[in-house]
């Protein structure tokens, strides 16, 4: 089948819309390098658009009507948004679902130590990473430290021009003959991904007040003094901290033609952003619109903030109660008759590694929104596999709105694979298919996407929430 390069189809008006959207997207990436930062950014945006906390609506007991907008946040890491449609919830919803966590390094609970004149933070990598990609690049520390009295200290160090940055060292090439004989997975071991955070020993004055003496663990002590004076926390506060190590720096336009975006965390914040914008820019629908953005997808969608938790189901139950009365049967009807796009990225075809792809069924940057009918690995294991009727329904919606899309698989059969949140929502019996943006360098510190694919995916998500009705 012929593939279209979507850049060739755009009018001058659409190109202006594309650039505006992608500028907003780069800002979203810069402001939301962690789940908590994403939630703060999203809440600020949606409250300006008239969204009200679901808990406040529940407390007020005011019945919801067509056009009402509510949202709920769970543990500052997941969020669900609803815009009420004209039809009853019993007839189902149109759902966009993505995740806002990304591969990174997490600081351990007892992390700070000194060795060889350096102060280090011990880390544990989160999600699937090539560990060697994280050495010798500027890194930033983002997150929160919560003290025993409940005080929360927000940490964001390494993003401003006058901020210090941090790094993980690597062995110099002159001494690395033995290292280079190792497999790529072993070149850098997980326990070697320790962050260098200082090298200046602190000195203390003697009792006489004149003579200076080195402090015990002088470099570590110096770092602890800085943490206390500048950021207000002490070593024991690491126990109740969530600190994430991410690449320092802003998302950038890439290529002489500025056709791409290079930035951290595009898996899956590119789909989270386009889903959010589609919701905000859709004014009225027959069916209730829903957008759910969750945590923990990169480690199996587990835990209280992952898609496997009951957070989403509980929020729909509260929504139904506000719409005239909850019942278990009503909830089951609503979920089973819903349509969903599991909004997640796909592997972009890379000519430098063409042997990993089956070209006819690969996603190409610049060819529009991507549909993955199935994901999984080893014979589709662990995959949701959308049915033909649902795929045909989506094709009809996109044809009407002139949305350019492509279909793909995640690499050659037997080469690899992966999963999304699709199979979890499919457990309710709803129609679900994976869709999103093709990404180059997926799971690397810096990932690349096409501006055209971002714009086309936004258009596709908007067409879906406006027009999907199959149940």
Describe the structure in your own words:
A hairpin with a 2-residue loop joins strand 5 (104-115) and strand 6 (118-126). The two termini are 29 Å apart. Helices cover 28% and strands 24% of the residues. The strands form five sheets. Strands 1-2-3-15-4-16-20-18-19 form a nine-stranded mixed sheet, sandwiched between helices. A six-stranded antiparallel sheet has the order 8-7-12-5-6-9. A three-stranded antiparallel sheet has the order 13-14-22. It is globular. It is an alpha/beta fold and 471 residues long. The longest helix has 20 residues, at 12-31. It has eleven helices and 22 strands. It has helices spanning 12-31, 35-48, 54-60, 184-187, 218-231, 266-280, 311-322, 328-336, 388-401, 422-426, 451-467; strands at 52-53, 69-74, 78-83, 93-99, 104-115, 118-126, 139-146, 152-157, 195-198, 203-205, 212-214, 241-247, 252-254, 260-263, 288-294, 339-343, 346-347, 369-372, 405-407, 431-436, 438-439, 447-450. Helix 1 (12-31) packs across helix 11 and helix 9 (388-401) crosses helix 11 (451-467). It folds into two domains: 6-102 and 264-467, Aminopeptidase (3-Layer(aba) Sandwich), CATH 3.40.630; 104-247, Aminopeptidase i, Domain 2 (Roll), CATH 2.30.250.
Short description:
This protein is of the alpha/beta class and 471 residues long. The protein contains eleven helices and 22 strands.
CATH architecture of the largest domain: 3-Layer(aba) Sandwich
* Share in helix: 25-40%
CATH class (first level) name of the largest domain? Alpha Beta
CATH topology of the largest domain, anyone?
A: Aminopeptidase
What is the gyration radius calculated from CA atoms?
24 Å
- In spatial order, strands of the major sheet run 1-2-3-15-4-16-20-18-19
What would the principal axes of the Cα set say about the shape? Answer: globular
* Tally of helical runs: 11
Number of domains: 2
Instruction: Identify low-pLDDT runs.
Output: none
Query: Roughly what is the average pLDDT, rounded to an integer?
Result: 94
Sheet with most strands: 9 strands, mixed
Strand content: 15-25%
- Per CATH, the superfamily of the largest domain is Zn peptidases
Terminal Cα span: 29 Å
Can you count the beta strands? 22
Structural class: alpha/beta
């Amino acid at each position: 089948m012929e593939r279209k390069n979507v850049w060739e189809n755009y009018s001058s008006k659409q190109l202006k819309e594309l650039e505006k959207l992608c500028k907003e997207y780069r800002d979203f990436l810069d402001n939301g390098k962690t789940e908590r930062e994403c939630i703060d950014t999203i809440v600020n945006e949606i409250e300006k658009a008239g969204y009200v906390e679901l808990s406040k609506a529940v407390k007020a007991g005011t019945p919801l009507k067509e056009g009402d907008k509510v949202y709920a946040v769970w543990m500052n890491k997941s969020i669900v948004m609803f815009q009420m449609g004209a039809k009853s919830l019993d007839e189902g919803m149109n759902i966009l679902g993505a995740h806002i966590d990304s591969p990174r390094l997490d600081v351990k609970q007892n992390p700070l130590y000194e060795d060889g004149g350096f102060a280090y933070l011990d880390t544990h990598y989160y999600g699937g990473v090539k560990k060697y990609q994280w050495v010798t690049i500027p890194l930033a520390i983002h997150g929160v430290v919560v003290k025993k009295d409940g005080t929360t200290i927000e940490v964001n160090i390494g993003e401003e021009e006058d901020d210090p940055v941090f790094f993980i060292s690597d062995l110099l090439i002159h001494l690395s003959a033995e290292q280079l004989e190792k497999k790529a997975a072993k070149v850098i071991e997980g326990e070697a991904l320790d962050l260098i955070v200082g090298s200046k020993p602190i000195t203390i004055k003697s009792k006489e007040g004149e003579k200076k003496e080195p402090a015990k663990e002088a470099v570590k002590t110096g770092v602890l003094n800085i943490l206390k004076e500048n950021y207000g926390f002490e070593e024991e506060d690491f126990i109740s901290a969530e600190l994430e190590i991410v690449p320092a720096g802003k998302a950038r336009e890439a290529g002489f033609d500025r056709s791409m975006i290079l930035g951290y965390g595009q898996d899956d914040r590119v789909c989270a952003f386009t889903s959010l914008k589609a919701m905000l820019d859709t004014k009225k629908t027959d069916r209730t619109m829903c957008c759910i953005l969750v945590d923990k997808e990169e480690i199996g969608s587990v835990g209280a903030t992952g898609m496997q938790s009951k957070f989403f189901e509980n929020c729909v139950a509260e929504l139904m109660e506000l719409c005239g009365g909850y019942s278990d049967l009503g909830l089951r009807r609503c979920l089973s008759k819903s349509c969903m796009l599991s909004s997640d990225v796909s592997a972009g075809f890379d000519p430098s590694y063409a042997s990993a792809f089956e070209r006819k069924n690969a996603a190409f940057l610049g060819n529009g929104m991507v549909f993955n009918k199935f994901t999984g690995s080893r014979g589709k294991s662990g995959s949701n596999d959308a049915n033909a009727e649902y795929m045909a329904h989506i094709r009809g919606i996109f044809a009407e709105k002139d949305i350019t899309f492509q279909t793909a698989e995640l690499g050659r059969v037997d080469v690899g694979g992966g999963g999304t949140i699709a199979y979890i929502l499919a457990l309710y019996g709803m129609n679900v298919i994976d869709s999103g943006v093709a990404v180059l360098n997926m799971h690397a510190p810096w990932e690349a996407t096409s501006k055209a694919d971002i714009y086309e995916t936004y258009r596709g998500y908007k067409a879906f929430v406006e027009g999907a009705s199959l149940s």
